[in-house]
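### Sample
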Amino acid sequence: MSHILENQETDVVSLSSVESKHRVMADTLSELIWLRWMAKELGAEQSSATTLYCDNQAALHITKNPFFHEQMKHVGMDCYFVTEWVQSKEIEPTKIWTKEQLINVFTEVLGKAQFKYFISKLGIVNPPVPT
């Protein structure tokens, strides 16, 4: 089971891109925990870690290295929450390049090749041509 990190609505204003990524990681992680629990209840327990993709190298570094939590006081409990699950080996945060972010098909202006790549990843065949 893997999950692509994407922007989610929040009632908090982030002061930095690292902080916003950590807030999104924590929100996404909450959903992943629920999905893992649901799979277990249905008899399909996951034995390996769930991959949590993130395109921010600094956020990943802080998540994997608790030493930096004290340096990031403005991030709050999100660091501890995510790190706890990473250390439990149930979640594996992994770098994804921005150009590989599937959400970009809906949020970015893309060239023809990149657009075709993303829609193929979504399983869309022969999309309608605008007239």
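The longest helix spans residues 17-41. This sample (Copia protein) is used throughout the tutorial notebook.
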